[in-house]
Design goal:
The protein has one helix and no strands. The termini are far apart. 61% of the residues lie in helices and 0% in strands. By secondary structure, the protein is mainly α.
Length: 79
């Protein structure tokens, strides 16, 4: 009898979780769809009103000075 009680209580929980997941995914898809439509209409208006020319900037690059020559170490006297 206790086994039958355990099995019957687990089914509604799984059903609720599945329903919640399905509703969550559908609402998320709907919100993303609305956001994409809104952004696509907003982008069209923004591009028509603002047309900035492209500016190219040139900068002179100087070569770095060469590194100083390595210091020569005096040889140690041999015994």
């Amino acid at each position: 009898m206790s086994q039958a009680v355990l099995e019957s209580s687990s089914l509604p929980q799984r059903d609720r979780s599945t329903r919640f997941l399905l509703v969550f995914v559908l609402v998320s898809l709907a919100l993303h769809g609305v956001a994409f439509v809104f952004l696509s209409t907003l982008e069209g208006r923004k591009l028509a009103s603002i047309q900035k020319p492209v500016e190219l900037v040139m900068v002179e690059v100087q070569k770095p000075p060469p590194p100083p020559p390595p210091e020569e170490k005096p040889e140690e006297p041999k015994p």
